[in-house]
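User: Can you help me understand a structure? I only have the sequence.
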Amino acid sequence: MHQLFGMVLAHKDLSRAGDLFSLEDAEIEGSLSEALEQIRLISSAADYQTNDNDQAVVEICITRITTAIRETASIEKHGQALVALWESCLEHNLKPSGKDEDTPHAKIASDIMSCILQNYNRPPVMALAVPVAVKFLQRGNKELCRNMSSYLSLAATAAADLLADHTDSIVTSVLQGNWMLLRVLPALYEKQPQPITLHLRDLVALMAQLEQTEQHHLLQLFQMVARKKELGVLQECVPVLLGHLRDPEHGDMILNILLEIASYEPTALATSLPQLKEIGETSPSLIGQTAKIFGAVGHVDEERARICLLYLVNQLANMEHSFHHILLLEIKSLTDTFSSILGPQSREIYRMSNSFTAIAKLLIQQLENSSRAGARVENDTGTESAIPLDDLKAVVSGKEEDDKLQVKIQAFEEKINVDNSTPGSVRRYSLGQVSKEERKDMRFNRSKSLALHAGRMKGLSPESGQEEESGEMAAGISFTDIFSSPESDRLPLAEATQLGNALGSQQSLQDTESPREKPLEGSAEAARSPVEYQDKLYLHLKENLGRVKSYVTELGKRIPIPDQCVIEDTVRSCVAKLFFSCPLKGHYCLYSKSSFTLISQQPPLWIHIMFLFQQSLFAEPLSIESNSVQVLKALWEKTQLKGTHSFETAMIQSTFPHQKDLDHVQMHLEEVRFFDLFGYSEEAGTWQCFMCNNPEKATG
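Assistant: Let's start by predicting it. Here is the structure, written out as tokens:
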């Protein structure tokens, strides 16, 4: 041992202990293990807890030793002696006194703990330390236990195997209130599931007492248990999990756990359907998971299938457009499994894929009919009550030919099959018209053809009766009509703004009829004579007109322009609901009567894109007083907080969107499978659906 170290420890000389810090680390490194053994003997003396001099000498020496170990990276060399001193502290009192002051041995344990466990990524050190560390969890010192738990959480990431041998002690510590260790349970469960499984019911009972992050760690554990199909213990935990479904932070995670259970044991959730139904109604964003759980439970037997179908069909009629495909897939799966429920008309019902409202009404009618004839269904499916085929065809367009419907539904089913082959895929293509909107919204239509189509929906087609009864309307503004109408220059600004806003309630917007389908370059809209020195937007566009046209030409090949834009308020902000349709509307068009719906968290970016598109249609720069600009301005103001840039300022300061924002838009379109259903046609110069771009696929 180094001479100074030996003298200080042998004589417990406090006056010379400080001189240890004048020595170089390398000079004393070889003596550290011997010094630690000497300290262990001193701290084990009977009078140590009352001898202030000895305590001070030991504290100074431990500080010098741990510093030297850290600076010379010699923890593995001296780890055994360090752990031996650490473990000796367990033989003494560690509980703090009434003044919350640590006992002398608790101070030693705390200093050594930080030195050892900071090396959690060194397996040899952890192999020595972990068996001792877990013993401190039960010694009644909360501060020491809390710090120990923090280090053990780090150790679990690098040495889960070592901790797994002590799973019992860790679970016991958690149940005694050491909730910080909840974060290590998922890692331990993979290595040693049995001790955790035995206490699962006690662990779930902690949910109400835990903080949000602690609840998250516990739910992670339950997700792993659900995947392991530990149904026996999980079934007892389901009621507690259901009780926390209303938690906005964890509702989605809990539903995923229940969905995992339903995938292999749906009967375990059969009695929970009322609570799940209520959650689906109060939290529409969770309808995707609840629908899948209902679908799973419905496969148990025909009686439950009928109950679950009624719920799913009602949601199909009432839920927003983005969830329709999930609901329809669950409904179709159930009716395929229990074909007697719908009888021979089931395939014909699903051919009516352009109207979810029509499908929902037909399904409800057939479910009611088959319920009244339940006894006959069981005994003789051939005599089952069914909807006449003529009535089915009358619900949608009587002009649709059966072979066209056949090809169309086959194309849809092929797309479903492709998507089903990819686990976890998200399908956002739409089959029907836009569902009823009860929120305040603003809309933008870029083509007259869509506006006229909305008019036909209200009163011209045989299907319109079905839609009108359910309160659905397609409202919109056709800027093309405003541009090309000879009276457009006389349209008052107040009237234009009213057209762009549907703030009080959703209302039908009538478009001015015009024989022209495209805006005329140099029309009244663009040729309006602004006071140039006052209209900054006009001057800006005048200087950049050529650049805008070139930019939009290239942009249009990468990003489609929506037919319609709806700005909707949400709890935290607002979103843009965008609708895309196929302009060709060919014989086998996938979107002849419906739209692909996209929910975007970037409304200002899409408004900017639509503004540039509008300008590209004209030979002259647009004015801030232009009717189309006023409508886009109204949409913009709906998305902005007070005090932020005005529409005019934003368009001038940044002529074109940032490239990274456009890349994000493309990624979003890829994620929702837009490019699987639409493609840019160089020949047509526009975006068309898959079937219109590849008509040979239909004949094939």
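Now, to help you interpret it: The beta strands are 443-445, 564-569, 574-580, 596-600, 678-681, 686-689. The chain has a mean pLDDT of 75. Let me know which part you'd like to focus on.
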